Amino acid sequence: MTHDSEQPAYPEVEGPVWGAVVEEGRGALPFALVHGESLVACASWALGAAEVEAVALGTPWEVVQEAGVPFVLHDALCPLLDAGVILECVRRAVAEDVVVVGVRPVTDTVKLERGGVLGGTVDRDGLAAVASPVVLPAAVVADLERLPSTDFAALTTVLQARYPVVLVEVPASGGRVSSVADVAVLEALTAG
Q: Are 102 and 141 in contact (CB under 8 A)?
């Protein structure tokens, strides 16, 4: 696993790329509004603008495999991730034949815990918070029996155990929201 914040330009992807916006298991939050639009709508528009053909998340995995294309998962809780960032993640996944996962730096203090007792502070430089997208190159799509999870952190853990995974830092505007208060912060961050 590597973690990059600087990305070189990757070549155009030849052929189609499929993907889905993940909203399931996220409660009602994907339907909250940011800049007057639902989070899920914003995420869907970004996916389309990144030249990804949207398919229903419930599409049988065998159908996705038979297409022989890369597959992008974009989290509805990362609604304002720029389409250009998604596109560069797709290009990198295809060019390097690696799974690419968008992440944000961890800014909270993280403490070790043993037996209910708090211990030392963990160095945040070695940590990343999974955001969006998760891009699977065609070879990984073909190898997976099914999509292991739609929880992006759990999915990343499973993928890291089996495939090369590159963590790419996405801008703050692409961060994950977990509450209506977070949506208000995101809206303020991206106003103007």
A: no
**pLDDT of the chain, 192 residues: tens digit per residue:** 445 545 567 888 889 999 999 999 999 999 999 999 999 999 999 999 999 999 999 999 999 999 999 999 999 999 999 999 999 999 999 999 999 999 998 765 555 677 887 766 555 566 578 999 999 999 999 999 999 999 999 999 999 999 999 999 999 999 999 999 999 999 999 997
Contacts of 31 (CB under 8 A, 6+ apart): 38, 39, 40
Q: How far is 21 from 44, CA to CA, in rounded Å?
A: 6
Is the Cα torsion angle 92, 94, 97, 102 positive or negative in sign? positive
Residue 41 near residue 74, CB atoms below 8 Å:
no
Which residues does 118 contact at the CB level (< 8 Å), separation at least 6?
111, 112
The DSSP 8-state label assigned to residue 122 in this structure reads P
Instruction: Parse the chain into domains and list their residue ranges.
Output: 2-189
9/18 Cα distance (integer angstroms) = 21
Please say whether the structural domain 2-189 has been given the CATH code 3.90.550.10: yes
ω into residue 133 within 30 of 0, thus cis?
A: yes
pTM: 0.87
